[in-house]
Design a protein that fits this description.
- This protein is mostly helical and about 110 residues long.
- The chain has five helices and no strands.
- The longest helix has about 40 residues.
- It has a single domain, classed as c-terminal domain of poly(a) binding protein.
Length: about 110
């Protein structure tokens, strides 16, 4: 009995992977083995950095809130503690946006917790 090869599926798999490597430099975009390794590494970086991105943004928001709250003589730590005690449920993303783009609203929040 002759050996059965599923060339159609094999080619489709390779084609899909080479399509993912579009935009890579040199042999990373068109040589199967190198492209496969490059895609694997790229996917690892993408997975890792989706998590890191969240950390970076939280850090940025905290920095912005801290800078804005210190203008009114209150540290970030005290500010967040008083928000919790007054039961004001605004997350850091919203607070940072208010601090940057709507200082009047941020000042009103500061006045409310003092």
């Amino acid at each position: 009995m002759p050996r059965s090869l599923n060339t159609v599926a094999s080619r489709a798999r390779r084609k899909k992977l080479l399509k993912q490597s579009k935009g890579f430099f040199g042999r990373r975009k068109n040589v199967w083995t190198i492209a496969k390794n490059a895609i694997d590494k790229a996917m690892l970086y993408a997975y890792r950095d989706r998590k890191a991105n969240k950390r970076n943004f939280k850090s940025l928001w905290i920095t912005r809130i801290n800078a804005a709250s210190r203008l009114y003589g209150i540290s970030y730590n005290d500010f967040m503690g008083k928000l919790k005690s007054k039961n004001i449920l605004l997350n850091r993303k919203v607070l940072a946006d208010l601090a940057m783009n709507n200082p009047e609203a941020f000042k009103a929040i500061i006045e409310k917790i003092k």
